[in-house]
Structures are given as structure tokens and as C-alpha cells.
Amino acid sequence: MSDTPTVYQAFLGNTYLFGGNAPYVEELYENYLTNPASVPENWRDYFDALQHVPAVDGTNARDIPHLPVINAFAERAKQGGTRVVVASADAEMGRKRTAVQQLIAAYRNVGQRWADLDPLKRAERPHIPELEPSFYGFADADLETVFDTSNTFFGKDKMPLRDLLNALHETYCGTLGAEFMHTTNQAQKRWWQQKLESIRSKPQFDAQKKKHILDRLTAAEGLERYLHTKYVGQKRFSLEGGESFIPAMDELIQQAGTKGVQEIVIGMAHRGRLNVLVNVLGKMPADLFAEFEHTAPEDLPAGDVKYHQGFSSDVTTPGGPVHLSLAFNPSHLEIVNPVVEGSSRARMDRRSDPKGSQVLPVLVHGDAAFGGQGVNQETLALAQTRGYTTGGTVHIIINNQIGFTTSDPRDMRSTVYCTDIVKMVEAPVLHVNGDDPEAVVLATQLALEFRMEFRQDVVMDITCFRKLGHNEQDTPSLTQPLMYKKIAAHPGTRKLYADRLAAQGLGESLGDELARSYRTALEEGKRPVAPVLTNVQRKFEVDWSRYLGQKWTDACDTAIPVSEWKRLAERLTTLPDSITPHPLVKKVYDDRAAMGRGEIPVDWGMGEHMALASLMASGYPVRLSGEDSGRGTFTHRHAVIHDQNRERWDAGNYVPLNHVADNQAPFVVIDSILSEEAVLAFEYGYASNDPTSLVIWEAQFGDFANGAQVVIDQFIASGEVKWGRINGLTLMLPHGYEGQGPEHSSARVERFMQLAADTNMQLVQPTTASQIFHVLRRQMLRDLRKPLVIFTPKSLLRNKEATSSLSEFTKGSFQPVIGEHNEEVLAKAAKVKRVIVCSGKVYYDLAKKRAEKGADDVAIVRLEQLYPFPHRAFAAELKKYPAATDLVWCQDEPQNQGAWFFVQHYIHENMLDGQRLGYAGRAASASPAVGYAHLHQEQQKALVEAAFAKLKGFVLTK
User: Fold this and answer.
1) Which of 228, 258, 680, 919 is the most exposed, having the fewest neighbouring CB atoms within 10 Å of its CB?
2) Coil, strand, or helix at residue 921?
């Protein structure tokens, strides 16, 4: 290194290098070798540099790591400096200096274990000898010894040991305990040390600020007590015991506004939700009371309970208006979190705000759920990835110390804190006593400042209690008798803080006056948050009006002109000379170029690509994510071309879909982390805030959706009927029986069919390249926004029979039903005796078998859209065969799976008089498919034969 001599000379010239201090320096160096963060920063810089200093006498410093230090002292002695001798007094002082640094490091690392965090004073202080001076050999006589702390502790440059101990205890063991030393980022460590140690973790609020905190505490308690007396026994998941959460939310919003944040997206479960709606977002109390009295308007097909409802409003802050959105939330704990992150990312993208300067996600958790729900690990794993980052999330935990309902603390978790999971992303944690609302507000300020500075997640853990049990019908003393004796004797956080302010001379009756004023406001129906803005014109607001009231039956022309097809295909398949694709990929793109010119039929990958290209050329952004979406699970997509001569992904990638037009909308393809639940929920949240983008989540295999079932059940299938939230998310689920065993065959069609009602979803199973082209374009060109679930094929990706001619893309639209197109069968339509109805890949097996048998009295009808069932198109197909007496539903899946039990009723509704409906397929099974290849082949052969055989078993007659 060029600067090595300079650093080395500075090291030699340091006064600490006089011989008497040799043991001190050598001990520092030994500490450095064990843990570099344990030594002061200036010494760490010296020792870092010494790794590059040539050793004396040719000895390699890498062989003897501390040799540079030894050589340094020897060189000093040669130059006539003080002799290198061990003076016992100086050596002892050096040892004490080192011990002081170790003591400071110990408080920074584990001081929070001694913090005063429990309002109920039930927790015993653990034995941590590292926080005791005696652990380092200090005696009482050392307490008055003055040590240099200029480079080790923020505050005074020199402090007696007694004062230093008091400062450390105040900073790290008060009502605010911080965890931040687990981060590997030195700048962040120093930031927290400076912020906390410079003020000893004590806020300095003026009288006006303190009165405002009391006002927010009064509002929090006042609403809960009002509801408790007026609506006795009704569930509300009270916030009592955790009222400091409301001042925290108020401070977060107000401070965020001053830092340029314009939108805050909030996700939380039940506890305190009604309080947030009224006292933070400004929902009118009268509207909430109407929900308690069951007189609220019921304008949704199903609706939801009041403590699941979302809300949005605009509030004033010193920095201007801030839009608040509280996400709708199902009962499944924590599942709303990735939805909020996706919603926030969509808002960021709409604002061209990649760092999250204007959009802030805030997630509120329960202590048991935060550590217990796996979706939190998945969501945290997304936090710093390129496709999912939201610039850092502020997490607030309402820690009631009892978990979900009746947890014994020994059974709640395997970690010290419920927050320990966030150490996987090195997020700092501020543990704070809920009975000290000023400390809570200070923690809020610090958390927000950190997030805005470093764009990373940060956690506030508010330790409080739950006064009334899990819900208002619960009797918690049945299982927690001693805890609830403490709670019964607790006067309440508001009362404690009001008395504290009175003792400071801020008015003995202030607390009572605020309580009376808030109660009066509730009784008069006034909004307790002032001011909430109305008719705010927000530049980036989405107008959903055009998407409301649309019908799925509305026609939609999805074809594109031949000239546009050829233009897009040429742009799509013209690769730059600077890119060297893999030979197999080059062959794919050469073939696609020929497809674009109409020289060969179009396959699935090209049909999909052209759908996306044409949408982006028309101004519709596309976002595609999944665990292998760039290449495609079955290597059919190749949306990302990797230069074979470069290994750096950012330098060696080329994405043709980003080069199809000069002013196209963006295309984003993301190879996601190995997560289904969080990623699918994220994409749902994204689509819920961007109806103009085609948002697609692709499972690697269809059965991977099993890991995201809660998202499908509680958001995708029911979000519209529960909350009125329309959403155009698209799911691609590879589905097909090719003998790949039980876990890689089925996308669980039956689950989606069972969830299908109220025209809530579109379920399709396309069988040609043109069908995937048209259905993707239809998803955006129609103003209908419903989730689209596509059961995509595997073997058909390369099946030449599943290709389409160019004319099928430049004419027509998606066909919910594909009728018979065999000319010989159509010519004898009046003599057709049997109609086989199927969906998906099995069609090609049936067509092949019919040809082998010469069965031109059998017609085959493909059902491409399973739901909403296309009654009109299907009935029209059946009418073509008036002599047909038998209808057969044929499927690959076992009888108790697939679509059979759901489509039979729809088919029966459209049958002609005298017709019979039978089943051909695998027998019912507990497994989606067999795992033995020979058994699979036998079953497949049998079910195809059964489709042409005499009906037997269950037969439905019209």
C-alpha cells in the first residue's frame, strides 16, 4: 500500500509506544485480533495498516500476526527511545485502560439486558458479570480514577470511573435499551453510540411537547374506556396497557412529514387497531360506533369485522400533508406485512422514488407473532433485495409480555427477545418501557432518523402489558393469576405520566381536564385528530373508478396488426453484437426471429414474449417475479440473456423485452428469493396499488403455491368481497401430469375451484401459444381487474401441436372454449355420439387416441376457462352435436382433485335432454400423483381409454 510508511511512521511516533505502555498496547492488539470492534477506532486503523507493513528481519508478519507490534517497539529502542521495560505501575494502568474499553463495549453489547423495561416490575435482572466493574479487576478505590474517554465514549473527554459507570448505566440500562452492536456496519454503530451516549438516552422535551404526549395518551385510554363502558363484552382487542403506542405513531407521522415523507403505509393486526383508526387516522367516532351497533352500511357481498378494516386519510404535519393508509388485514397474524411492503414499493415506483424518501412502510406487530410467524423471516429476507426493497421499514412491537393468549414465557420462544429474528438483516432494536412515554417518543424519533439515514429496517419494542386479556370476553387471570394481580394494581400509563408532569409543575389538573375534554368530543361525535384534511389533490393518487363495476363477459379484442407483430418481433430478437449468448439461447432467439417473420409456427415462449412486448409498447408496465423467472423454470422464457464472456450479472445481462420500443413502459423480471408466501403477498400488495401494470407471480412448480395458500385464501380469493379491494394480480402455476411425481404435477386446481365464487377470480388453463398471448393481453386491455390464475403447461412448452400460426395472433381473442376443429368430425357433426370435455394437456392425448381408433363420432371440446364458467360458449358447442347421448369429462388429476367435482354442475346445466355425463380419469387419491413412472404411464393410458369406453360408475343424467 502506498500509504503504509506514513501510517507506520505515525504509529512509531505515537506517545503510547514508550516502553512502559508496551503491555497495554500488546493487550490492545490481542483484543484486536480477537475482535477488531473491541478496540478504539484510531488503534483499529493502526492495526489494520500494520497488516501491510513489512516485517523486520524478513520475517513474514502473516506468520506471526503481532510481529509488527514487537518490531515497532524494537525499532523504537534502536532509535534511542525509552528502553522497552515493564514498569509494573504503568503496566497496571495500561491494563485498566484496556478494561475500561472492554467495560464500555460490554454495556453497548448487552447493557439492555439490565434495562428498566418492564412496567410490571416482574422480570428479574439477569446475572451478567461483564457489566460489573469487578469483572475487570476494578476495586472501589478505582472509582475515582480518571480515564481518557475521548475516543471511546461520547460525552466528556476525561471521566472518573464512577461517572463513566453512571453514564453507561443511564445510556444503556434506563427505560430505553438499545441493541445495535450486532451490525457489521461501523458507521451505523458509531451513529447509535453518538446519538445515545451524547444525551444518555434521555429526551429533552419542552412543556408543550410533554403536554402533547399526555394528550395522545389520554386519547388512547379515553377511547378504550369509552368503548368498554358503552359496548360491554364486544370484542375490540383493547390497547389498554399499551397506550404509549399512540404517541409513538403520532410522533412518527409528524416527524416523517418534516423529513419529506408524503405517504405512510401501515400494517397491523388486531390489538389497538380501533384506536389507530380513530386517534391516528382520524376515522369519525360515530362511524366506528355504528359498526359496534351493527348499523354500518353493508355495501359488500361479505364484509369483515371492524378490527380487520382498513382506512386512509390525509393529515397535516410541519412538513406538509401526509397520506396515511392502513391496510386491510385478515386474522392470519403478520400476513399483512409483505402486502404492505408490496403496496409501498408500488407507490415508490409510481413516484420514481427508489430510496423510499417519500414513502414509508410501518408495520405493527405483537410480540408472540413477530417471532413466531415464519412470514416475518421471509419478509425480512426481501428487505435489501433489488426487486423488493422499500428503503427500510419501521417496525413497532406492542409487547404485552404474554404472547397470544395464555403463553407461559418459557414456551413463547427460543430466543432472549421476540425481536431477535431481525438480527438476520442486522436491524437495530430499541427496547423501551411503555410506562415512560417520553422514552417511547424518543425511540420513535431515533428509529425514524436511522431509517431515513441508512434506508434499513429498524425496530421499536414497546414493553407494556395487556389489561383485559386477548379479547374483552377473556378472563386472563385463569392462567396468569400473579401477572394480573400486578396489572389490576397498575394505575395506568396515562395516570403515571399525568402525575409526573404535575410534579414538574405542569398543572395538577391537566390530566383530568384532557380526559374530560376527550370524553366530551367522543359523545359529541367530533373527530379527535385535528386536523384531518379533506379533498386533498394528490399527484400520484390512483383513480380506480374506471375499474369499478366491470363485467368479465365484456368483449375485448386482443389481436395486434401484422405490421406491429413483425416490428415488435424484430426488436425483440435483434441482439446487440456486444452480447455473446449461450448457443442454446441463440438458437431460441433465431427461431423466434423466424416465428416473427411467419416462417415457422409460434411456440409458447414467443407467444408470451409478444404479449408482454405489445403491452409495454402500449404503455403498460410489466413486473414478473418468481424463483426462476428470468430463465423460466423449464428454460422456455430466456427473458434475460447472460453474456457467456462475462460473469458479472450487472454487466453481462441483456433483457430484450426492455428494447421493444423507443418509449415503452418498463419491464422488470426478478429471480426472487426462495419464498412463496412473502413474495406472493408482496406482489398482491403491489398490484393492489397499481392497476396499470401487469403484475405476475410465477411458481417454480404449481404445487409451490402450497406455501402461499394463506395469501390465496385471505387476499386473492376474498379481498374484494370482504374489503372491496379489486386486484389484477396474475399467477402462473405450472401444472401437468408428466410422471414427475406427486409434488411436481399438480397446481391444486381443485383448491382454486373451491374458492371460486362471486366472479372473484379468473381460472384458465390455456393449451396453445396464441391462448397465452391473448389471455395476458386481455388481463390489461379490459378494465376488469380480477386475479388471473393461469395453470401453465410444462410439456406443451415444446409440443409442436401446441404452437399457433401467425394469424392466430393478428386476429381474434382469448377463447374460453375451444371447440372441435377436426374437419372429419365436424363434417359428421350430426352423427357424433359422444362429446369429451377436457382442460389442459390431456386434450392432445385424447386427440391422438381418437386418431388411432378412427373414432370420428367423438368430438373433443377444450374448456380453457374453468371459472367464470363460459356458459354461452360451452352451450353453443354442445348444440353442434344434437345426436350426442354421452358427455365425458376427462382429466389427468385424481377424481377427488382437479376440476371434476366443480365443473360437473356447470356442464349439467348446459346438457341437452337425455344426455348423460360420466367421468374418465384417475381414481380418487390422497396424493396428487404417483411417483413411479411405470404406474403413471399405466394410469394415463387407462384414463384416455376410459374416455372412449362405455360409461360406468357415477353417471349424471339430464
Assistant:
1) 258
2) strand
Instruction: Copy the grid coordinates of residue 27.
Output: 493487550
Please tell me whether residues 806 and 822 are part of one structural domain. no
SS3 category, 499: helix
Domain membership of residue 550 (yes or no) is: no
- Give the whole-angstrom CA distance, residue 592 versus residue 609: 10
CA 394, CA 248: separation in Å to the nearest integer?
11
The reply to whether 364 falls in a domain is: yes
Given a contact cutoff of 8 angstroms between Cβ atoms, the answer to whether 76 and 43 are in contact is no
Extract long-range pairs of 35-38: CB within 8 Å, 24+ residues apart.
37/105, 37/181, 37/186, 37/189, 38/101, 38/102, 38/105
Q: Which pLDDT score is estimated for 477?
A: 75
Calculate the alpha carbon distances from 406 to 37, 463, 473 in Å: 41, 17, 14
Q: Which amino acid is at 698?
A: E
By CB atoms closer than 10 A (0-12, 13-18, 19+), residue 228 is middle
> How many alpha carbons lie under 13 Å from residue 17 in its C-beta half-sphere?
22
Which residues, other chains included, contact 884 with Cβ-Cβ below 8 Å and sequence gap of 6+?
832, 833, 834, 835, 859, 878, 912, 915
In a domain, 227, yes or no: yes
Domains of the chain: total: 4
For the whole model, what pTM was predicted? 0.88
Note whether residue 548 is domain-resident: no
Q: What are phi and psi of 862, to 5 degrees?
A: -95, 125
How far are the Cα atoms of 204, 262, 340, 343, 715 from residue 688, in angstroms, in the given order? 42, 19, 10, 7, 10
Evaluated on CA atoms 227, 228, 234, 236, the torsion sign reads: positive
CB 776 within 8 A of CB 608: yes
Distances (CA, A) of 827 to 718, 820, 856: 46, 11, 9
Closest of 429, 398, 462 to residue 172, by C-alpha: 429
Number of CB atoms found within 10 A of residue 142's CB: 17
Cβ neighbour number for residue 717 with a 10 Å cutoff:
22
Per-residue DSSP letter, 694 = E
Q: Could you tell me if 627 and 674 are in contact, meaning their C-beta atoms sit under 8 angstroms apart?
A: yes
Compute the radius of gyration of the chain from its Cα atoms: 34
Three-class DSSP category at 908: helix
Domain that residue 486 falls in:
207-526
- Give Cα separations from 204 to 208, 357, 433, 447, 480 (angstroms): 12, 27, 17, 17, 38
The SS3 call for residue 944 is helix
Instruction: State whether 604 and 463 are in the same domain.
Output: no
What strand order describes the sheet that includes 176-179? Answer: 176-179, 429-433, 458-463, 394-399, 359-366, 263-268, 322-326, 311-315, 532-533
- Grid cell 390489538 in the structure block, residue: 271
The DSSP secondary structure of 835-864, one letter per residue, reads EEEE-STHHHHHHHHHHHHT-TTEEEEEE-
pLDDT (tens digit, 9 = 90+) per residue, 174-216?
999 999 999 999 999 999 999 999 999 999 999 999 999 999 9
Q: Which of 116, 134, 149 is the last residue of a domain?
A: 149
Evaluated on CA atoms 545, 551, 552, 553, the torsion sign reads: negative
User: 518-568: per-residue pLDDT in tens?
Assistant: 898 888 888 877 678 877 778 888 888 899 888 887 778 999 999 999 999
Angle at 746 between CA 741 and CA 751, to 5 degrees: 145
Predicted local distance difference test score (pLDDT) of residue 301: 63
What pLDDT was estimated at residue 411? 75
Low-confidence ranges of the chain (pLDDT < 70): 1-27, 30, 33-34, 41-42, 45-46, 48-89, 232-236, 292-308, 404-409, 470-473, 530, 647-652
